[in-house]
Write a structure and sequence with these properties.
The complex is a heterodimer of chains A (about 120) and B (about 110). In chain A, about 0% of the residues lie in helices and about 55% in strands. In chain A, the strands form 2 sheets. In chain A, strands 2, 4, 5, 6, 9, 10 and 11 form a 7-stranded mixed beta sheet that branches. Chain A has a 4-stranded antiparallel beta sheet with strand order 1-3-8-7, with no helix packed on it. Chain A starts with a strand and ends with a strand. In chain B, the strands form 2 sheets. In chain B, strands 2, 4, 5, 9, 10 and 11 form a 6-stranded mixed beta sheet that branches. A 5-stranded antiparallel beta sheet of chain B has the order 1-3-8-7-6, with no helix packed on it. The model of chain B has no long low-confidence stretch (mean pLDDT about 95). In chain B, a hairpin with a 4-residue loop joins strand 7 and strand 8. Classes of the chains: A mainly beta (about 120), B mainly beta (about 110).
Chain lengths: ~120, ~110
């Protein structure tokens, strides 16, 4: 398996809802990432997990809560979001967590709409 | 921290012509420079990358050049085709940094007219 998968593809939620996004990879990658992408803008880093531990939080509001239950799975729990949080949420993974840089592979993303 | 500037923001070319997109970076410690192509509604996909110990890399119609002294790198697409139409993002990162952050340029919308 040479792919990062994400579910769901689309999600519509109200501001009081709680929902979760899921990301999976079976490439043995040990670094996993969450990005937020607005239309026609570059991906914006939110969180980095290295060996299942949170290593970078780019000052993301607490209404976004990441979780890495195991080396293949990454979740993003959503609660009390705002309409401006509507975006494409991308997951990515990378083989190594440090040392020589190598490719980050992106998942297809979850298109989130907050009403 | 690292800052990446990308130009132009939009680029229209005739099918068969060449396209060049340029990026500059600020942190001399950056040593890995990937280029991603993103079609509408799809994921960013790596098309080519270059490390700082190399000045140029080519893959069929796509090439990337790196000038470490001037801190800029460029994407060259030759014989453009309509399917090359997409948004292209350059990025820079420092190997060895914990978590390996990619810092992206603002993106270039490439339109190839047939």
């Amino acid at each position: 398996d040479t792919e990062v998968t994400q579910t769901p593809k689309h999600l519509v939620m109200g501001m009081t809802n709680k929902k979760s996004l899921k990301c999976e990879q079976h490439m043995g990658h040990r670094a996993m990432y969450w990005y937020k992408q607005k239309a026609k803008k570059p991906p914006e880093l939110m969180f980095v997990y290295s060996y299942e531990k949170l290593s970078i939080n780019e000052s993301v509001p607490s209404r976004f809560s990441p979780e890495c239950p195991n080396s293949s799975l990454l979740n993003l729990h959503l609660h009390a979001l705002q309409p401006e949080d509507s975006a494409l949420y991308l997951c990515a993974s990378r083989l190594r967590t440090s040392g020589m840089s190598d490719t980050q592979y992106f998942g297809p993303g979850t298109r989130l709409t907050v009403l | 921290g690292e800052n990446v500037e990308q130009h132009p923001s939009t680029l229209s070319v005739q099918e068969g012509d060449s396209a060049v997109i340029k990026c500059t970076y600020s942190d001399s410690a950056s040593n890995y420079f990937p280029w991603y192509k993103q079609e509408l509604g799809k994921r960013p996909q790596l098309i080519i990358d270059i490390r700082s110990n190399v000045g140029e890399k080519k893959d069929q119609r796509i090439a990337v050049t790196l000038n470490k002294t001037a801190k800029h790198f460029s994407l060259h697409i030759t014989e453009t085709q309509p399917e090359d139409s997409a948004v292209y993002f350059c990025a820079a990162s420092q190997g060895g940094s914990y978590g390996n952050k990619l810092v992206f340029g603002a993106g270039t919308i490439l339109r190839v007219k047939s």
